[in-house]
Design goal:
- It is built from seven helices and five strands; from the N terminus they run H-E-E-H-E-E-E-H-H-H-H-H.
- It is an alpha+beta fold.
- Strands 2-1-5-4-3 form a five-stranded antiparallel sheet.
- Helix 2 runs antiparallel to helix 5 and helix 5 packs across helix 6.
- The longest helix is centred in the middle third of the chain and has 21 residues.
- The termini are far apart.
- About 4% of the residues have low confidence.
Length: 207
C-alpha cells in the first residue's frame, strides 16, 4: 500500500494522496500536515455516495476531476474503494494515466486485506444481533417513503447516514433508528421537514 501511494506521490505536481475503502473508511494517506486524519475521514464520508451511484463495470468510468484555481482534485475508483488525489494543474497526464492504471491493477487486493484505522475520538460501533437490529422490511418501507421527498437519491442517503453512525443498513441497532432518520431528514428540503417528521411519528417512530 505504501509503495503504491509513493508511486502516486512521485507523479510531478501531486501534493496529496488518500485511499478509501468502498464504505468510506480511510485506509492510508500522504497529505500535507494541514489535513489531519479526522478531516480526511470526513472526506471519505462525503465521497462515498459517489461510489454508490457511479457505474460499477470496469471501463465505464476512468476518473473524475475537479479544477480549483491552480489545483486539480481527482477521484479515481478501483475495485473495493477509491483514491483521492490533489495536484497542481501542471500534472503530466500521460504519467498520471500510466501510474494509475498500474495502481488499479494492484490496489483492489490490498484494499480487500486492509483494516480501517480507528479515527481519533471515534467510538467503536456497539455489537449488534439479529434481535436488536432494525428489520430490513422497515428500512425498505422508510426508503420508499423518503423517495417521495428525496427522489432516487433516497437509498444512497440512507446508506450514507448509516455510515456516519458507524454501521451499514444491514446492522443498524433499533436504538439508533432515530439517529439514522434524523440524518436522512436533514437532507429533506427545509419546507418539507416538518411534514416528514410528523408522518414519521404517525408510523409510531419516535423522532
Amino acid at each position: 500500500m505504501n509503495q503504491l501511494m509513493s508511486n502516486i506521490k512521485n507523479i510531478p505536481g501531486v501534493v496529496g494522496v488518500v485511499i478509501f475503502k468502498d464504505n468510506g473508511g480511510l485506509v492510508a494517506y500522504d497529505f500535507p500536515e494541514a489535513y489531519d486524519k479526522n478531516l480526511l475521514n470526513r472526506m471519505g464520508l462525503k465521497f462515498q455516495p459517489i461510489k454508490e451511484i457511479l457505474p460499477q463495470e470496469e471501463g465505464e468510468i476512468v476518473y473524475l476531476c475537479w479544477e480549483y484555481e491552480d489545483l486539480l482534485a481527482f477521484y479515481y475508483p478501483v475495485g473495493g474503494g477509491w483514491v483521492n488525489i490533489v495536484s497542481s494543474d501542471h500534472i503530466p497526464m500521460p504519467v498520471f494515466s500510466l501510474t494509475m492504471t498500474a495502481v488499479a491493477s494492484k490496489l483492489p487486493k490490498l484494499l480487500e486485506e486492509a483494516e480501517v484505522p480507528q479515527a481519533q475520538g471515534q467510538e467503536q460501533p456497539a455489537a449488534v444481533t439479529a434481535e436488536n437490529t432494525v428489520p430490513q422490511e422497515q428500512l425498505e418501507k422508510l426508503e420508499k417513503f423518503f423517495a417521495t421527498y428525496l427522489g432516487p437519491a433516497s437509498a444512497v442517503i440512507f446508506k450514507r447516514a448509516a455510515h456516519h453512525l458507524g454501521y451499514t443498513l444491514n446492522n443498524i441497532p433499533k436504538d439508533h433508528l432515530t439517529d439514522l432518520l434524523q440524518g436522512v431528514i436533514a437532507r429533506v428540503p427545509g419546507d418539507k421537514k416538518d411534514i416528514v417528521t410528523e408522518k414519521i411519528r404517525e408510523m409510531s417512530i419516535n423522532i
